[in-house]
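2024-03-11 09:14:02 INFO worker-7 job=invfold-0412 stage=load source=structure_tokens
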């Protein structure tokens, strides 16, 4: 049976039957059996299963299966009330720190989201507001504790997407002349997707532009995602709608130019108003193409025939100038999750098991503050110097610590 097809028996499947498949997915790239995340997730899933069965928790806790039923917990037993109860259990269990409770719950929440995609559950119950309500508030982590891509992580991710895009583009551009159209289209689609992902990663990694300024916000029509008309690759700049509610120019440093230029050449957008980072979601594109062609007077039969000429609706949209929407910020997070796993990047962070978009901005902020100081960093980050000093105060604290250490060594070395 296809692994992505929901099954009729899923609601009656025991929870533990899904664990190994989930962990293999999370461990991919390491043979499916390695990695810190897999190990930690396996531990928390086992604890959750024990709690669900009534083997962990308060003495009066009997689990999520009705008392008059003798069986293991199944997906049919899960709803948002169960996850709410587990959040409450974690909050009162073993005197855990607030952020540790949040971290442990995220392992279960991530599994719940995977179960929705795999057809085990109808909804992401663990993310419902009522389910997460008992979780403790953030306990005031310092700005320096927030995720910031390290140089090693940045290089690992950009190297991975660059190699992946180069291979896909080469595979497409070196196809034999007699390659049939469907295979040629599929190769082009693969190359486009890899090139888009590479360009997105490089922009996030090196420009320090907020991801909300790059991509579409469904709740704000002004944030429709950057278009090709907003970019000037020759000048090394792009216009973005800033957090301060106005358009402003942002820098495109040298590492970003080549991926964008190569991607644009491959895409060959029909107009400058096309989004730089369009969605590749098949359902969205299918509905868009059908609706637009119908609005142009095409009959349903003709629309079906037209779509069948293309391996992907995105390619039809390009040929017919049917402009798709930009990906959203949530879409960017999903892309970075996928790429972080594929690149096998080691990530040790209490909140994110992948390189999150804001971490790219903060990583560049770290580089700029250390290299040029707060004033220059503030200009590049489009923030006040005061705010940059506050958010990157851990850097100054560390530098002052080095000064203090040097002073102590100098004083202590003087004979008394």
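2024-03-11 09:14:09 INFO worker-7 stage=emit residues=416
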């Amino acid at each position: 049976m296809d692994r992505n097809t929901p099954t009729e028996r899923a609601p009656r499947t025991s929870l533990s039957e899904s664990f190994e498949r989930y962990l293999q997915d999370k461990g991919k790239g390491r043979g499916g059996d390695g990695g810190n995340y897999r190990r930690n997730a396996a531990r928390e899933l086992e604890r959750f299963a024990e709690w669900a069965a009534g083997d962990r928790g308060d003495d009066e806790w009997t689990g999520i299966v009705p008392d008059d039923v003798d069986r293991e917990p199944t997906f049919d037993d899960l709803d948002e009330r169960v996850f709410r109860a587990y959040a409450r259990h974690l909050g009162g269990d073993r005197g855990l720190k607030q952020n540790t409770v949040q971290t442990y719950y995220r392992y279960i929440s991530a599994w719940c989201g995977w179960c929705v995609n795999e057809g085990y559950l109808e909804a992401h119950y663990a993310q419902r507001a009522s389910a997460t309500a008992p979780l403790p508030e953030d306990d005031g982590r310092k700005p320096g504790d927030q995720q910031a891509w390290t140089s090693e992580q940045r290089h690992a991710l950009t190297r991975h997407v660059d190699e992946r895009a180069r291979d896909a583009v080469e595979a497409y551009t070196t196809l034999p002349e007699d390659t049939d159209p469907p295979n040629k289209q599929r190769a082009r689609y693969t190359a486009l997707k890899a090139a888009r992902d590479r360009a997105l990663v490089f922009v996030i990694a090196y420009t320090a532009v907020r991801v909300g300024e790059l991509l579409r916000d469904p709740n704000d029509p002004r944030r429709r995602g950057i278009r090709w008309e907003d970019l000037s690759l020759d000048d090394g700049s792009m216009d973005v709608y800033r957090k301060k509610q106005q358009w402003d120019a942002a820098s495109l440093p040298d590492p970003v130019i080549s991926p964008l230029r190569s991607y644009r050449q491959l895409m060959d957008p029909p107009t400058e108003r096309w989004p730089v980072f369009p969605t590749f979601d098949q359902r969205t594109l299918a509905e868009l193409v059908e609706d637009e062609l119908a609005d142009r007077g095409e009959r349903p039969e003709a629309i079906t025939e037209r779509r069948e000429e293309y391996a992907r609706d995105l390619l039809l949209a390009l040929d017919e100038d049917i402009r798709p929407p930009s990906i959203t910020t949530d879409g960017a997070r999903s892309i970075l999750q996928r790429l972080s796993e594929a690149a096998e990047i080691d990530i040790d962070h209490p909140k994110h098991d992948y390189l999150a978009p804001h971490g790219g901005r903060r990583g560049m902020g770290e580089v700029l503050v250390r290299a040029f100081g707060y004033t220059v960093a503030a200009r590049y980050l489009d923030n006040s110097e005061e705010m940059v000093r506050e958010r990157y105060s851990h850097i100054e604290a560390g530098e002052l610590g080095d000064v203090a250490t040097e002073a102590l060594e100098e004083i202590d070395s003087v004979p008394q």
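2024-03-11 09:14:09 INFO worker-7 stage=report msg="The CA atoms of residues 205 and 360 lie 5 Å apart."
2024-03-11 09:14:10 INFO worker-7 job finished
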